[in-house]
Amino acid sequence: xxxxxxILKEALLEGVGLHTGxxxxxxxxxxxxxxxxxxxxxxxxxxxxxxxxxxxxxxxxLTVRGTGIEKDGVRVHTIxxxxxxxxxxxxxxxxxxxxxxxxxxLDGSSKIFAETLLNAGLKELDKEKEFYIIKEPVHFExxxxxxxxxxxxxxxxxxxxxxxxxFLEYQKLSLTDLNKDNYLNNLASAKTFCFDYEIEALxxxxxxxxxSMDNAIVIGLGGIHxxxxxxxxxxxxxxxxxxxxxxxYLAGKPIKAKIVxxxxxxxxxxxxxxxFVSKAILEQKKNFGGKGEHRxxxxxx
Length: 301
What we know:
Helix content is 20%, strand content 32%. By secondary structure, it is an alpha+beta fold. Strands 2-3-8-4-5 form a five-stranded mixed beta sheet, with helices on one face. It has a five-stranded mixed beta sheet with strand order 11-12-18-13-14, covered by helices on one side. Strands 10-19-20 form a three-stranded antiparallel beta sheet, with no helix packed on it. Strand 4 and strand 5 form a beta hairpin. The protein starts with a strand and ends in a 5-residue tail after the last strand.
């Protein structure tokens, strides 16, 4: 039996939001009951409204340079790095208290989030975990973005990115069986990035106000502006996969599939998730190596 999971004890992180520039504190707390999901609670607002981290709560206006969720006019921006860490650690149920509209960007990767949650300890709950699986391929295409899913017993991702830029014309990476160790070793440290010519326009539109060389890689014509060297030679495609894993976790259940993505981005990632879930089946695996039970997912957009 594969059980649902939460954390053992509280953990806290604080810092500056990437886009808002606001100082914020996030407190991770154990979820007592299974099937609670991952929920953000705005403790700075009256009645402490909560928003479940689910694609049904994503807002088109919040997925331009990050993924955000919204419910009844209450928003939380840029949650993809937290969601990516939760997915990698198989955390299904978690309370995330936040005192602002955006969690801290920290070093621009998911490494500190993952380490903090690991240090809080993981606890199994008395409920079986369910997975989304597919029997037939699922395809999504929009503009230059193409994302496909193929049946697989694990989460696998093959990602290709490319830009009309001399320093970042093409990168590709394939990772199979994205388990905790694979993620921590190959993805968690990959930092977010942008091109130097984008910064002024982003800030005029109220974005990247908390961005700096400490939490983002800034790419110029001849290379990166940062003094710190790249953590991976192909760090940019690795970060795109990190983001994609976080967005995929907004399906509400972990996914078992081989994902092949060309030029993914948050807006299209979420639209792919909607298409995937509409054609997926929920699998409840009774034991390791067992066939498990299946039931058709019921989806309402």
